[in-house]
UniProtKB/TrEMBL annotation:
Transmembrane segments: none annotated. It comes from the Bacteria. This is ParB/RepB/Spo0J family partition protein. It holds the Pfam family HTH_ParB. GO terms for cellular component: chromosome. Residues 35-127 form the ParB-like N-terminal domain. GO terms for molecular function: DNA binding. Keywords: Chromosome partition, DNA-binding. GO terms for biological process: chromosome segregation; positive regulation of sporulation resulting in formation of a cellular spore.
């Protein structure tokens, strides 16, 4: 069957629309859009945002492909430096599973694509079509924003997600690397992660170990994190209230002791007892001296 390529002249939205149309068509039609190519002629996609593939999930997909065939073609572009050779744009999970299933060929759509558009195309296609791990998804969003110089709002429009969802997913990259690895390995869920991201790194790790060791639910984790925050807020408030007061008390006590010393030097009875300054007068002369001290001394 003659090859028919899909071009990118009208931009990424156009090609994704045409690919979607191809997915929805009977794959046995004669349009030439979907063709069979040698599975070994496809080289891995160096721009693939997905880093972790679950072996059990791949085997399940391989079993499905063996029984029902591949329902969605992979997306490739021709290697201009080598005949009958292709680079994968999207569908690495389908390609891996087809190899596990022992397939010698695979259904594919060949795309004519400009080099600078490959990254964006791979990112958007994977975000839209693959069940990416939350961390891989966050990296895809981040790279799409950086590569294309676009905002969270623009990403949301391109992939039909809410801006809040984009922002919340990107926040997962603020997690400690150890915690991120636990998400990649599916030891904790994205629900757990959204709560952990509000904690400092050391506490993130501590709570993560508790989630895994005690099999805590998201609701239980939420309670633990709330207790940690409440405890921290109480500690900060306590320090903010008491510490200045203690400093003030110390300064006041020192000042009162200095006053006592001045009064003693003027032969006036004065004592500092339990934060109180007690002055006693034996005669009118001592009262006059005390009055003069108050008027003239700078304490």
């Amino acid at each position: 069957m003659a090859k028919k390529s899909v071009g990118l002249g009208r931009g990424l939205s156009a090609i994704l629309g045409e690919v979607e149309e191809a997915y929805q068509k009977d794959l046995n039609d004669n349009s030439g859009l979907v063709i069979e190519i040698n599975i070994d002629s496809i080289k891995p996609n160096p721009l693939q945002p997905r880093k972790v593939f679950d072996n059990k999930s791949l085997q399940e997909l391989a079993d499905s492909i063996s029984e029902h065939g591949l329902l969605q073609p992979v997306l490739v572009y021709e290697n201009t430096k080598e005949a009958d050779s292709y680079y994968l744009i999207a569908g690495e999970r389908r390609l891996k599973a087809s190899k596990i299933a022992g397939k010698s060929s695979i259904k594919a759509i060949i795309v004519e694509v400009q080099e600078e558009k490959l990254r964006e195309l791979a990112l958007i296609e994977n975000i839209q079509r693959e069940d990416l791990n939350p961390i891989d998804l966050a990296h895809s969003y981040k790279e799409l924003i950086e590569d294309c110089g676009i905002t969270h709002e623009e990403v949301a429009k391109r992939i039909s997600k809410s801006r809040t969802q984009i922002t919340n997913t990107l926040r997962l990259l603020e997690l400690d690397k150890e915690v991120q690895q636990c998400i990649l390995e599916n030891k904790i869920s994205q629900g757990h992660a959204k709560i952990l991201v509000t904690l400092p790194p050391k506490q993130q790790i501590m709570v993560t170990h508790s989630i895994i060791g005690q099999k805590l639910s998201v609701h239980e984790t939420e309670k633990i994190v709330k207790n940690i925050k409440d405890s921290k807020s109480h500690h900060i408030a306590k320090n903010n209230i008491l510490q200045p007061k203690n400093k003030g008390n110390k300064a006041l006590m020192k000042q009162l002791k200095n006053i006592c010393a001045i009064l003693h030097s003027n032969k006036i009875s004065a004592n500092f007892v339990k934060n109180k300054l007690i002055v006693e007068f034996s005669n009118d002369e001592e009262i006059k001296r005390f009055k003069n001290i108050l008027l003239n001394e700078s304490f």
